[in-house]
TrEMBL record:
Designated name of the protein: Dolichyldiphosphatase
Pfam families per the UniProt record, alphabetical: PAP2
Biological pathway: Protein modification; protein glycosylation
Gene Ontology CC terms, in alphabetical order: endoplasmic reticulum membrane
Species the sequence originates in: Gopherus agassizii (Agassiz's desert tortoise)
EC number: 3.6.1.43
Domain of life: Eukaryota
Length: 238
């Protein structure tokens, strides 16, 4: 029987984590890049939250494309089986193969698909043409910058080589273009039927593919409805 204050551990404990990122102690840049490399986790959480509250088919398709992209990455890694650089530098890695980088492939898929969505899927519906183009350009630059920084972090933190990150970015970009084309040409025509399914109606899943700018549409409809209700409330109080 163990004495008071002592613990008897039959086996080493292991952490439960979706990603385990290590950086050199005392390296502020490495710490910042380590946190930045967690962007894929934040994006997935954001997608799940958006789907729960919006339940829009194109968003669900986007998340499905990210999941398919990850599956392709796993397949390529296990076919090529190129090891990571400096494996002894990290105590824990999720996979022992590094070609191509899953972080790089994920982020470039997300960035390229978002870029195509911004410029090809969303269209101008109001008169603020300059401001509309400005925020799209700024958002596109931010997407590319974050994708590059996440890719760079994997090299800086010795999880991947430059070639593994580069091929991951190329694979993610190609997958994004292919999935966007597949969504637009194959899935989008099917969205009205899917939205009409009893299960879709039960879970309030909707199709907004015919609305060119969903942000502007939701803003104008919500504003008009709020004003209408305010007028009705004012009439009742008189």
């Amino acid at each position: 029987m163990a004495a008071v204050g002592e613990c008897s551990l039959p086996a080493p404990w292991r952490p439960v984590s979706l990603t385990h990122v290590e950086y050199l102690a005392g390296d502020f840049s490495g710490q910042l890049l380590a946190y930045l490399s967690l962007c894929p986790i934040f994006i997935i959480v954001g997608f799940v939250t958006l789907i729960i509250f919006k339940r829009e088919l194109h968003t669900i398709s986007f998340l499905g494309g990210l999941a398919f992209n990850e599956g392709v990455n796993w397949l390529i890694k296990n076919i090529i089986r190129e090891p990571r650089p400096c494996e002894e530098a990290h105590s824990t890695v999720t996979t022992k193969y590094g070609m191509p980088s899953s972080h790089s492939q994920f982020m470039w898929f997300f960035s390229v698909y978002s870029f195509l969505f911004l410029y090809l899927r969303m269209h101008q519906t109001n008169n603020a043409r300059f401001l509309d183009l400005l925020w799209r350009h700024v958002l596109s630059i931010c997407l590319v910058t974050v994708a590059f920084l996440v890719s760079y972090s994997r090299v800086y933190l010795l999880y991947h080589t430059w070639s593994q990150v580069l091929y991951g970015g190329v694979a993610g970009s190609i997958m994004a273009i292919a999935w966007f084309a597949f969504t637009q040409e194959i899935l989008t025509p099917l969205f009205p039927r899917i939205a009409a399914w009893p299960a879709s109606e039960f879970f309030l899943i909707r199709d907004t593919s015919l609305i060119p700018n969903i942000l502007w549409f939701e803003y104008t409809v919500t504003r008009a409805e709020a004003r209408n209700r305010q007028r009705k409330l004012g009439t009742k109080l008189q």
